[in-house]
């Protein structure tokens, strides 16, 4: 049954066991994200912000609880179903861009589509359109090392958009940038959100989190 939410987390529990140590990260955690919302996640270092994004994005199974995407349980699926969810419904942006240094900006952006079924020509056309959207048309043939930090992050955002995800998950995407570049990248997320992409952003920047629709504060459990 459709709940009406894009993402719904119900009673999520997550612990990490490392030798004798047990780290409780999330305890009966609940979250509802409406389609089109811009949510920010804040909280002290080590509280579980990245873990939460990974759980939402199909990268990390919770110990218990339900993650629904468009009313369907993400982790009910076998791994093949999870791959398709990660590749087609969700786009990830991380603090470090993880662009491949031996490939140009446009080739990096094309990469997620080439793993899928579309032709190289189609992928190149779409990648060029997205690079234009993120303000990077004139850097298509640059290699990552020939781009500034802010530009690298814009290319990483473009790559995350390649498969037209409904949900953009960003883990401190501005954490490595100076103030001017970090606001520029944040503005880009705002623009994408206004165009309909739901955004969940982890940030240490209280000013930026204050500009989102809703701020989720994680606390130690
Ligand atoms: N694979 C793992 N194995 C064991 N412990 C882990 C693992 N991943 C995360 N943790 C622990 O779980 C806790 C939450 O980690 P997480 O990266 O989600 O925090 P965070 O809020 O994103 O931190 P930061 O703001 O420093 O990036 C931390 O104490 C971390 O050491």
UniProtKB/TrEMBL annotation:
Residues 7-221 form the ABC transporter domain. Gene3D superfamilies: P-loop containing nucleotide triphosphate hydrolases. Its EC number is 3.6.3.28. GO terms for molecular function: ATP binding; ATP hydrolysis activity; transmembrane transporter activity. Keywords: ATP-binding, Hydrolase, Nucleotide-binding, Transport. GO terms for cellular component: membrane protein complex; plasma membrane. Belongs to the ABC transporter superfamily. Macrolide exporter (TC 3.A.1.122) family. This is Phosphonate-transporting ATPase.
């Amino acid at each position: 049954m459709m709940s009406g939410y894009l993402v719904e987390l119900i009673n999520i529990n997550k612990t990490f066991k490392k030798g004798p140590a047990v780290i409780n990260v999330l305890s009966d955690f609940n979250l509802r994200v409406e389609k089109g919302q811009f949510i920010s996640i804040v909280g002290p270092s080590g509280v579980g912000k990245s873990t939460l994004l990974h759980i939402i994005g199909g990268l990390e199974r919770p110990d218990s609880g339900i993650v629904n995407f468009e009313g369907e349980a993400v982790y009910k699926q076998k791994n093949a179903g999870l791959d398709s969810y990660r590749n087609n419904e969700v786009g990830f942006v991380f603090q470090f861009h993880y662009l491949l240094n031996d490939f140009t900006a446009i080739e990096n952006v094309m990469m997620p589509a080439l793993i899928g079924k579309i032709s190289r020509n189609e992928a190149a056309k779409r990648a060029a359109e997205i690079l234009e959207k993120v303000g990077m048309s004139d850097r298509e043939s640059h290699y990552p090392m020939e781009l500034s930090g802010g530009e690298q992050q814009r290319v990483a955002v473009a790559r995350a958009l390649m498969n037209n995800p409904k949900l953009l998950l960003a883990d401190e995407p501005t954490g490595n940038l100076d103030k001017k570049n970090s606001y520029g990248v944040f503005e880009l997320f705002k623009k994408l959100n206004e165009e309909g992409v739901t955004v969940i952003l982890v940030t240490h920047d209280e000013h930026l989190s204050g500009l989102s629709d809703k701020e989720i504060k994680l606390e130690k459990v």
